[in-house]
Amino acid sequence: MSTSSELLSAAAAGTFALGGDLTVNRLGYGAMRITGSGIWGPPADKTAALATLRRAVELGVNLIDTADSYGPGTSEELIAEALHPYPEGLVIATKGGWERPGPGWWTHNASPAHLTKALEGSLERLRLDRIDVYQLHVPDPAVSYEASIETLAKLREEGKIRHVALSNVTREHVDRARKIVPIVSVQNRYSFADRESDFIVDYCEQRGIGFMPWAPIAQMRFAHAALTRVAKELDATPMQVGLGWLLRRAKNVLPIPGTASVEHVEQNIAAAALRLPDGLYEELSAVNPPPAVLRG
After folding, report:
1. What is the Rg, in whole angstroms, of the alpha carbon atoms belonging to the chain?
2. For the domain 5-287, what is the CATH superfamily, name and number?
3. For the segment 138-187, what is each residue's pLDDT rounded down to a tens digit?
4. Which residues form the catalytic set?
5. Of all helices (H) and strands (E), which one includes residue 186?
6. Which H helix or E strand runs over 240?
7. Of 110, 185, 216, 275, whose Cβ has the fewest other Cβ atoms within 10 Å?
């Protein structure tokens, strides 16, 4: 698919209002991959990481997803270095609930004390007084889920969080959280090749809750040959078709593909203008990705 300037705008994907008051272009950017190997430490090419962040925003991305655990702290620091003072309307969504003892190593901690400390750290690194969208990164099996959500609700009441969101959750988790505080988005693994959260996408759509699929294109290289066939027909890449399928899937779906390459971010954003005809969308939706892909 062409990446000429007239097609390069995240706005071409349309908009969604998170919480009813934060209008974002539906194709966002995930900032995990701007860190080092193992999602640990600084990137191998910091200049490229900063340039990618700036290029994404230049091309209309106004939703950036990150987390305190990416680095840890590195992703948030790079976002601030590249983009602060932030352009009007830029929404930065971050998360807390993991600790990082080392590269590739993640341990649960969604205790009230840790979440409070994590939120304060994110505010400092991002150079913000309030986080627009703060997500519980993952429920902690050793901590009361209600206690974790009540902590975020309290921080919202204190004005340090604008909206509360969830990540890596079941529908039951969403229901339980909504009894405590409004939930504006859910972020689960989801893509053309991995549809385990299909019913959660529908649940969120029916309730006006945004759905941010993480790893929206990570498994495309393993996806069904149908993507390649459709890509050839539309003069696009299979990954662009995968993003186009997500954008067509439901109006609340907000893909956040990540990369540390300007070239790749341009290719991803070009997918915002891709329109899947009804027949091709239905053909792709009827494909049942093989179990090996789902576990991949």
Report:
1. 18
2. NADP-dependent oxidoreductase domain (3.20.20.100)
3. 999 999 999 999 999 999 999 999 999 999 999 999 999 999 999 999 99
4. 70
5. strand 183-187
6. helix 238-249
7. 275
